[in-house]
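Technical note accompanying the year-one report. For the benefit of new consortium partners, we illustrate the data format agreed upon in the data management plan: each record pairs a sequence with a structure-token string. No post-processing was applied to the example shown here.
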Amino acid sequence: MSTGAGTGAKASAPLRDDLSGGAGQSSSERAPWIIAPVVAMAAFMEVLDISIANVSLQHIAGSLAASQDQATWILTSYLVTNAIVLPISGWLASVFGRKRFYMSCIAGFGVASLLCGLAPSLSLLIAFRTIQGLTGGGLQPMSQAILADSFPPRHRGMAFAFYGIAVVFAPAIGPTLGGWITDNFSWHWVFLINVPVSIILFSLIGTMIEDPPHLVEQRRTLLRRGVRLDYLGFAFLTLGLGCLQVVLDKGQQEDWFGSDFILVASLVSAATLVAFVFYELQRDDPIVDLSLFKNRNFATAVVLMFMLGFVLLGSTAIIPLLAQDLLGYTATLAGMVISPGGFAIMALMPVVGRLVTFVDTRLLIAFGLALSSYALYRMTHLNIHVDYWTLAIDRIVQTSGLAFLFIPINTTAYVGMPTEKNNTASSLINLARNLGGSVGIAVLTTFVARRAQFHQNVLVSHLSADDPQYRAMVDQLQAKMAEHGAGAAEALSQAQGVIARQVHEQAQMLSYLDAFFLLAIIFACLIPCVFLMRRPPDHTAHGAGE
């Protein structure tokens, strides 16, 4: 892999392999370290918008005279269009030029955010969120591809540390930040905050980024040959991913396959995605190059990244629910439970970025899986009297493990990857993480609801008038109610109500513990899969051509 062709910095000379930021560096050699936080901020802004509006839905619904169910389309519309653009962003960058495509995404995202913040009705807000998802879909993969091209493989670990902080910290801080903005300003600013950030990023990227020579030549060749849009492949992909995202987002709300709508959408999604895979594998110029999965490292990395998204976003969704449903936390305080974990990731990412340069990345991934699995197993011992710091510390340990996954998985994915495939590789890796998150949220929220029903039935089956312990508890509670002036019948009813509430709380808690156990088992089972990857040369993330 040629580092000379891989740099994305304007007028930047090839980076030396011993790049360390010392005084002897030229300004051109330091340029990538300036680029990294800028492109990471673009990814952070886009990922943040996936979760920042979640806690504002009630306010938005009330302000725009809509129901809570109708308001959820604000989230669904964004996720659907985002999922569609992610896998084809590599192809779009090849056709239009990566810098031009990237800057168009930033400009479009900023304009769409402005329109969302000013939307006078729910229908317009959903339409503008659709545009926001379309324009923002290219920001994550292009940010990662620019980092991959701007740094030699040996230093990609530190480059991906910036990116990792952005895309892993954003979901953790999103609900807390969104709640704070909504409470102290208004829901409009949840979207309007993107406008000045987009303007600054557009200006900086316009002056700092240039397409590397290999991409310029690749685009020229493509244009000389003639651009042919794969209409059928694009239709299969759009319909398949769009329906899949709707199913994941609306499934629990619509009772999954008990709903004809969800059943039909699931069948359409499955059929079109299978057709897409077979159709694209037969084409010489596919809109998504699925041949990348022949690379064992890349295929394994995509699976691991999918599961990283599954566990990260899935646990990020259910931990605040536990805090609110069972511990009586407010939305803001529930968000504060998961925020320290985000800061732990921020602190550890640079450390892991350095470690990947001299430690076998497979060992780092295995350690991250084991640590996160251990933390999730610890959570299976929580109870309804757990204090804030116990829950927050368990979350910190869990996310500390995740910090050892993101950078090593990404750097290992590029081992042996041709430089000209970086855009497509980044698109598929980011799609895997986003889809994993959507699947994780859908599966875990449904799992918790179903397991709560199961535990409720089991616990209720033990509450019998013939059971001496149950009878004693009822008598004790009934006596206490009578002491407060309740009649015999009323005291009995109140005592049974207290027991029913306790049963419900215990059933809910047991369902959350089951969910944590499931996540712990999933991560533990993934550890052997790590060693399907090829060992990086010299314990570094060197690419094939370095």
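Partners are asked to follow this layout when depositing records. The two ends are 5 Å apart (CA to CA).
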